[in-house]
Specification:
alpha/beta; FAD/NAD(P)-binding domain; 2 domains; six-stranded mixed beta sheet; 11 helices; 35% helix
Amino acid sequence: MKDVLIVGGGYGGIAALKTLAPRKDITITLLDQNPYHFLQTEGYSLIAGTLPFDKTIVNLNSLCQSYGENISFIHNGVSHIDLDSKCVYIEQKEQIFYDYLIIATGSVTRMMDSIEGLQNCSYGIKSLRGAFHMKQFFEKELFTRLENHKHAKAHYSIVVGGAGLTGVEIAAEMQHYFNRYYKNNTLACDKITIHLISGSDTVLKGMHPDIIKYATKHLEHLGVILHCGLHISKVEPHKAYLENGEVIDFDFMLFTGGISATAMVRSIEVEHNKLGQIIVNPTLQIPGHTEAFAVGDAAEILDTKGKRIADTAQAAIKSGIHAASNIEHILNGKEPVAADIRIVGLAIAMGGNYAILSIGSIKMRGKVAHYVKKLIENLYKWPLWIRCRFGFNKACEIEG
């Protein structure tokens, strides 16, 4: 039996697991520092208070239990990966050897060193911990305003640095949340200000002009203040300095200006790009190590024309499936094939029941787009939850 080790239980890792699970001639070990898969596409609903945190996670142990005895989960962090020895070191210097490896460790928020004070004065939201921390912070602030009349009338400011997909979604969701809260509680909604800062001339740089237009119009309708074509030059406690000399006072700052590979991935002795992602072959194999693959945000994934594919959940899922399929090809005595990963459609949450949807030439916005987005998310997570319930019941029967 060959041993397949999947490092990372995010979108790419789970996609690989699901693809390989039907095979009974291999053992599969899923390794992650967290016991859950965080549904990042649901993180904004968690922050906005429309979903409890337990509805934004998938239990990895129960998921693995549901597939059979040849699949197991290890809850532990990785300290080092030695590709030459085909060995992964976890805490307490324990070793896990493998025949095939899939690195699917995702990414972290890239706190740019060029922006003085950024790392110490702002937060990222790539993890459940970050999203939950933000939710608690905002709810505490709103509760304080509810109890204290003077505090309720005080100005409150939030800065969101970076106007890509994550920045736009979080700014829209939070502004909608505040607007709804103050309307329902008859408090002064004009005392909440969200500043969205974009280093580009528009939000959502690189997307279709219609998408940019719809998003900009709705952000302005919600009351988000846009600062386009400006970079953040420095951050101090409660102050963000823009390159044009403008100073924005804030009570809370989020930075969503990009991602980078995890420190563990950057430490692997292979070629990386400027974001620390592993540069892989078209087959998603790591050069010089045909038994090792990297997927999702851990890898620089290119399309068939050599253009870098955006780091999205969709790309992670498709790359995870492709890497697993190539392992199957090798096990079956076939050559691995080059990936042809394409992003089919994009759904952007814009607060409440409003979303923007782009599928090929089709562009739509409003409630219908929101319900389509929710349908896509539910079709992903519901089967996983069903499997988790089955795995949990199975484990209880064994223990009983």
